[in-house]
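Convert to structure. Protein one:
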Amino acid sequence: MEKKRNIRMLLGAFGVAGAMVLTACAGGDSGGSAGGSGDFPEPNGGTVSLYNWTDYIDPDVLRKFEEETGITVILDNYDSNETLLARLQAGGASYDVIVPGDYMVAQMIELDLLLDVNPASFPNGGNVKDEFRGQYWDPELRYTVPYMYGTTGIAYDPTAIGGEITSWADFFDPESPAAGRIGTLNDQIEVVHAALRAVGAEPCSTDRNDYVKVDDLLTAWKPGVAVINSDGVIGRMASGEQVMHMMWNGAFTRAQADNPNLVYLYPEDGITLWSDHFAVPKGAQNVDNAKIFINWMMDPKNIGEATNFVGYDNGIIGSGEFMNPELGTNDAVIIPDQFLSRTQAIPGCSLEAIDLYDQVWTNFRR
């Protein structure tokens, strides 16, 4: 796992990006702390409701947790940070553990949607890698602990499209030879980020002219898009149903295992570096069981086994001992040094930028 040295350089990018976000995103009253003092709860049966990204945790790991603790996991899935946020704000369901991305953690703290359970004080709280401490979304680990981290790039089959591509501009090319067999994530932030890069603009731009260019680009490109869906990407790319897709790097490694023709591209016009985190939302009915679950997942062996299934790296010290060695040599998982400069950790955009993203995304999804 020697190539994992890159994590320090990668997570350093989060620190730089975090300097651009408003300090309010990392503060605010917790609305009543649910943890951090007293004895840590002991398993006593019952349930824990986990609201997680689709296909983002090993069923065998969940079964192991149930066997070891006697707590039953109730799993529900979502396909984007925005879907998660809307569900919580609508109050339509009560979940005990959620898995928001970095910028969404900051937003949820600002919106007072998360419990201050102080996971840094849990028995396994010391296992969090230093690179994930002091970051803009939760600098003191009062609300969250890291789960997995990775990148959002382009997966494609060069044998099916007649050659190589190098950029997001190639991905969004309306004349692409992959037209009709292109897929993209159902993710407003990722798609608009990438389209902004394709037109030569920066993510979170507030220049309206940039969004006119993006809107024109996406309008011309959409007829060649076969699917806009974050679910089922692995199967579609593995089977060849799609031959080019915006894709998370861990999902790519699983598709590539069944379709070795697939290539993961670090676009020359930039690539998003992201991380996902366990948190307990306000309204959780089983807070003690949520703490037990999060603490259990911070055990290096458990998170290492979870990593082997999802194909991403994680934020827990000592987990490498339990990870498949091939993950440490896979360039889609561990970013090669020559591509590090292309990674961009993007904090939450300004309200003005978010409104522009919304307008472009609404037009694209019509």
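Protein two, convert as well:
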Amino acid sequence: MADYGSLPFQEQITFFRDKVNLPTAAWTDIWEGMHARAFVVSGAMKEDLLTDLRGAVDQAITQGTTLAEFRKQFDQIVATHGWPYNGGRGWRTRVIYDTNLRQSYNAGRYHQVQQVKRTRPYVRYRHNDSVDHPRPEHVAWDGIILPIDDPWVSTHWPQNGWGCHCYMESLSERDLKRVGKSGPDTAPPIEWEEQTVGTRGPTPRTVRVPKGIDPGFAYNPGQAAWGRQLSQEAMDTWRAQGRDAWEQLTSGRPATYDRPAVIPFDKPQANVGKHYHDQEEVVVALRKQLEGDEKVYNVGGLPVLINAEALGSHIDIKRSEFLPLLEEALTDPFEVWATFERHKGSGRYVLRMRVIKAVELPGRSDKGLTLVANASRGVLEALTFIPMSRVKEIQKRRLGMLIYGRQN
């Protein structure tokens, strides 16, 4: 078993470097397999702060930086950005360092195992006895041998909790005979438990997890990054909760979540009607609205950063009169959706959010507007105002996971 923080391999490095930076207020802002796509540090809301933290983690993975060295870099980054992080320094640095190194290692190992499964079709769960407080369930799973594609592997591939040091070994038919087995074991039955996490933060979640696995770890990071997104059992659980993040990605069908086909009109809180002549005027107006160059909004429990210059340069001048409706669209949306989409150029996955709201326009031929705001990597990149007369099917604008939905 390679020591974490040393002997990096390409699959591990690729897994980590393919992630996108995502500002988050709490670790529950995104869930399970979404962590395989996004680099997050709870409470790190600024892109430059995330970039520096990511650089320190990248160095730990690729160059074998020790925890002590990482802590020195962490102190410098915190001092540079004035970041008032929560929790003690020792605990916080260990969580960032350990979780990123182990999950990137485990995801990379899964990819390697998949490449050789024709000749080595089994995996053996191994408990690392070096941990100070071993979990009884993890000790009980030690030595279990299963086919690599067994559903149990989808939810029990390490890490299986904070500080978990368990790992998987790849085995061949000959290896099974060496340990006295003629075939793989039967997967242990999964006993599901309901737990509520994140109660001290802005995004608490009540979730079902297998007994012995910490909430947020009941997924295979390698599958989420390279293979099928989640096990069918996990997807069924998410679907029952109405928060299935991967419905469209895995089936190609839209996820309706029993949402109404017609969006109700909201009365606008801001005055509209002022037209702007060029993008520079739009940027100036946005700076006034944001009371500065940029501002972070809480949208459906996830942070979204608005940069006046970046957004202003992309807004259609013909629709700039509706710019004052931006803030109410974000602070009082009708629906907020999130999904991962593959970037056409790089081929990498990008986390995208879509905000949907309808606003009435009394006395106008348009009668009403559908406001659609798109955010990528936690930054608002586009805002579209579509006359209701042109919105033929709102369902086409519902993409991915419903993370917020108003009742009426």
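The chain has two domains: 10-241, 279-405. The chain has a mean pLDDT of 81.
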